[in-house]
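just leaving the lab so this will be short. what follows is a protein written twice so to speak, once as letters and once as C-alpha cells for the fold. can you read through it and tell me how you think this chain folds. thanks a lot i owe you, the record is right below.

___
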Amino acid sequence: MGGKHSQYDIGLDKNPANYVPLTPLSFLVRSAAVYPNHVSAVYEGKSFTWSETYARCRRFASYLAGRGIGEGDTVAAMLPNIPAMNELHFAVPMAGAVLNALNIRLDPPSIAFQLDHGGAKIVLVDPEFAGVISEALTLMTGPKPFVIDVDDAAYGGGKRIGEIEYEATLALGDPDFTARLPDDEWNAIALGYTSGTTGRPKGCVLPNEYFLWAGRWYTEIGGLCTVRAGVERLITPLPTSHMNAMAYSTMVMLLTGGCIVPLDRFHPGTWWESVRESRATIVHYLGVMPAMLLGAPANESDQGHCVRFGFGAGVSPRLHGEFEQRFGFPLLEAWAMTETGAGAVMIANREPRKVGTACFGAAESRIEYRILDEKGADVAVGEPGELLVRCAGAAPGFGFFREYLQDAAATAEAWAGGYFHTGDIVSRDADGDFHFIDRKKNVIRRSGENISAVEVESVLLQHPGIASVGVTAVPDEVRGDEVMACVVSRTALSEAGRAAFAHDVLDFCLDRLAYFKAPGYIGFCERLPLTATEKIQRAQLRELGQKLIATPACIDLRGSKKRTAFA
C-alpha cells in the first residue's frame, strides 16, 4: 500500500533522476555532522552528544555483525530505557537486520510468541530479565535464539549494557565499521507488535519510511507543536518499544538535533523534579499521567518548569482544562496507531483545541478518511462511526506499516476497500475536528444506546476511593447489555463496606453521566488484566466481569440506576 516516490516523498531532492533515499541512519550521520557537540540523550544524569551516539552505534553494529547478524535477520532486545536500547534502533539496521524491541513488562508466553513469530536470531537481555527470558525459551515452538546476557564475558568482562559505562562492550566493535545504509525507504528495519487488547498481537513490519516520516511530520506540523532545531529537550517515561517513543520522540530529536531524556518509567512523586532537572521543554504523556499528577496537592512550584507543550493522547476530557490551568502548558491530544504511524496522524495543535471534548484536531489535506456506521454507510456530521484512513494520492499506505508479519489475510482485511480500518469510533463536528469516542469493540450496547467504556472509566477514575477501573459489558435479559465496572479500591473493604462504597460510586456517576451510562454492576477485584503497555486487556476484562457477576464481590445496582434530572 505504500512505498517511495509518492507525492509525499521524504527525499529533499524531488528530481527522481537525482533521488537519494533518506533513512533514519542517513539522518544520524547528518546530525552527527551538523550538531556534533549537541547533547543527543541524557540517561540518569549521563549525557551523550550526537557525534558520540553515532560512534557508539557504529561500534555496536560492528559487534552484532561479528556475531553473525546480517541481511534479513531479526535481533530481539529486552532492555529498559537505557543507552543501549536507543542505540540498537540504529545499530541493528546498520548491520542490515530488523529490531524487535520487546516490552520489558511482557510475560513469558507473550515473549515466546514474539520470538517465534519474529524469528529472532539473537536476543539481548538485561540481567534483570534473564529469568523471564529463560522461561519464555521453554515455551517456544521454533528454533531458539542465541541469548546474550549483557553480563556475559563476551562483552569484555562484566560490564553491563544496562549501565552507563559499557565501554568494554563497545570496544569490541570497529569504530570504522562501514554501516549498511538501507537503499530504500520501504526496507524494513523494525517490528512493532500491537497491544493485543482483544486478541493475540500482530507484528507490524515497519520500514525506514515509517520512522523518517514520523520525525518529518512532527518537525513540520507547527502551531503549538512547533519544534525548534537544536534547542528542544524532550522527556518521556514511555518505553522505547512503544511507537510513541520509538518513532515520534526519537525521530523528531534526531531530525532537529535535539535531546531526548528517557526515564525508566513514570514516577508521579518525582516527575516534576525530573522535568526541572532535565530542563525539558517538551513532555510526552499517556492519559493516566495527567490524572495522577492532578492527584497531588497543588503548590507554588507547579508552573516552575520550562515545558512548552505536552504531546500525547487519552487525557480525561474532564481533567484536561484543569491540568492546563494548574501546570501552565497545553496538552496536545493526538491520534495515531502502530499501524498508521504518521501516515494518518492527527493532532489538536492549533486553537481552538476544544479542550474537554476529546478533540484530536482536523485531518490534514494529505489524509483521506471515512466515518462509517455499522452497515458501512457514511455517517452525518456529529454522528459516531468507525474511522477509516489512508494517504491521498497514488500511495495510500505512505507512512503506514508495511504489512502484518506472516499474515497477508489480516493485512488485506485491515485495508478492505482501499482504506485502513482503525477500529476506533469517532465523530467529526461541523468545523471538521475529530472527537474520540472509544474502540469499536469497547462500545456497550444497552437498550439501543451506545455507551463508551472509556467515557465511563474517565468518570469513575475521578472518584477518590477508586485506584483503577475497567468497564465492560455483561449480558442483561432485558437490555441486551449492562454496564459493569471492575473496580480496584484504594482501601480494603468488608462485604458491607463494598455495598456502601458501590452505592456511593453510583451516586457519583449519576451526578456526572446520563443515567443509562452509570454502572449497573460494580465488581471488586485486586487487579485489572493489563497489557505490557498498561492498556486494559479488553477480552480478559470481559471474562473477569462475567466471573465477578456471580460472586459476593459484585454489587447489583440495577434497581438504583434511575433516570435523574441531569440525565
The longest strand covers residues 466-476.
